From TrEMBL:
CDD domains in the record: trans_reg_C (cd00383)
Residues of the DNA-binding region: 132-229
Domain OmpR/PhoB-type residue range list: 132-229
Name of the protein in its database record: Response regulator transcription factor
Entries under InterPro entries matching the protein: CheY-like_superfamily (IPR011006), OmpR/PhoB-type_DNA-bd (IPR001867), Sig_transdc_resp-reg_C-effctor (IPR016032), Sig_transdc_resp-reg_receiver (IPR001789), WalR-like (IPR039420), WH-like_DNA-bd_sf (IPR036388)
Modified residues (4-aspartylphosphate): 53
Length: 236
């Protein structure tokens, strides 16, 4: 399977350096110099990973994330000159998977691309024998093989991380997971972000599944999160 990476930055020297390093590692690479061009390339190139600068003309990195909020199977690494935790949280809230602050080491970026690519590839559908498996909790249904989630038979648009996080919690109702547990299981040991990432994704999931009263995804204060037990009558 060809591993595709889209590099988006308005500084041509940075784009060239990153693209060269990625191609040496065997990746197929396309580039873009602004957010609008990036969206066009996403539609035609179908990358698994996108390296995306925040500060760009026409449409910045945050704007690209917003336009791709309903994306599936694209991992996003944000590049930013700001080292403010607020800026990083904003990026994660908009669906980015990781971030790096400029200037950065190319070797570290390559390592993060490799780790993110593995996580995206693991999002591929499981073997055929699991094709009918579903997890049901009230009006929420997770179709494991197809990696889809429906609420009241309406399909939700989840990112790969949101799907993985929801599936882990719903597969083991009433089991309490610490934030570190979830960070390890969903993002992997290579992830350099903090546990705040888990909180942000839980907030996004609650909004998407309509869990405003937090009955399905429950906070265990001082520890982490758990999913409520399925409602009576729910089955796969």
């Amino acid at each position: 399977m060809t591993k595709k990476v889209l590099v988006v930055d308005d500084e041509s020297s940075i784009v060239s350096a990153i693209a060269y390093a990625l191609r040496r590692e065997g990746y197929e690479v396309e580039t873009a110099n602004d957010g609008e061009e990036a969206l066009v390339k996403v539609a035609s190139f179908h990358p698994q990973v996108m390296i995306l600068d925040v500060m760009m003309p026409r449409l910045d990195g945050y704007g690209v994330c917003r336009r791709l909020e309903d994306r599936e199977d694209i991992g996003i690494i944000l590049l930013t000159v700001k080292n403010d935790i607020v800026d990083k949280i904003v990026g994660l809230e908009m669906g980015a998977d990781d971030y790096m602050t400029k200037p950065f080491e190319i070797r570290e970026l390559l390592a993060r691309v490799k780790a993110l690519m593995r996580r995206v590839e693991k999002s591929s559908p499981p073997p055929d024998e699991q094709k009918n498996q579903a997890i049901v909790n009230g009006n929420l249904r997770i179709h494991v093989a197809h990696r889809t989630v429906t609420v009241k038979e309406e399909r939700l648009d989840l990112t790969p991380k949101e799907f993985d996080l929801l599936t882990i919690l719903m597969s083991n109702p009433e089991r309490v997971y610490t934030r570190d547990d979830l960070l390890d299981r969903v993002w992997g040991m290579e992830y350099a972000g903090g546990t705040r990432t888990v909180d942000i994704h839980i907030q996004r999931l609650r909004k998407k599944i309509g869990d405003t009263d937090q009955q399905k995804l429950q906070t265990v204060y001082g520890i982490g999160y758990k999913a409520s037990a399925p409602e009576p009558g729910g089955s796969a």
